[in-house]
Amino acid sequence: xxxxxxxxxxxxxxxxxxxxxxxxxxxxxxxxxxxxxxxxxxxxxxxxxxxxxxxxxxxxxxxxxxxxxxxxxxxxxxxxxxxxxxxxxxxxxxxxxxxxxxxxxxxxxxxxxxxxxxxxxxxxxxxxxxxxxxxxxxxxxxxxxxxxxxxxxxxxxxxxxxxxxxxxxxxxxxxxxxxxxxxxxxxxxxxxxxxxxxxxxxxxxxxxxxxxxx
Length: 214
Prior knowledge:
Blueprint: H1 9-22, E1 31-32, H2 34-41, H3 45-57, E2 61-64, E3 68-71, H4 76-97, H5 101-121, H6 124-141, H7 145-168, H8 172-189, H9 192-210
């Protein structure tokens, strides 16, 4: 018998809206109506308001009384902040993770398989989800729980920025698979200097694609 409690109405609205925002179903700058959301999810407007307040606290929407909720556009500064945070956390964690490389290869291989499958069917969201899990596994292997928690808090911003960028350049899916394949192969080859260099290069290449055209 399944004794797991069903999610609350607020949780259902929150999960629905967050997924729609991160996957760009609700695009940057879109104005969302409480009434429309309530009708779509099948709830009253009270849990919609509660979910929107939570999303506002996470910086994903801005509330305008009597008008609705605006999906906050990703700013150039937010992109730079995410890139800097990634570099600080991932490069440090990658160095520490080297001593656990055998376990790490085992942990990373299934995520790479999911990336390949997503690339083959052209599913940007699934590829980015597996990509984020791949990098989170590297950070976790670094052994610093606080950094792991910090990195998880970056996940939503990375997903939102990455999905938007990859939809503009879908050919990047091939590059993502190739880069992550090379990262695993380097772990297996036993060259720590090359491993660290590849992690730094990978973040740098991603940064160039995420930054808006000037």
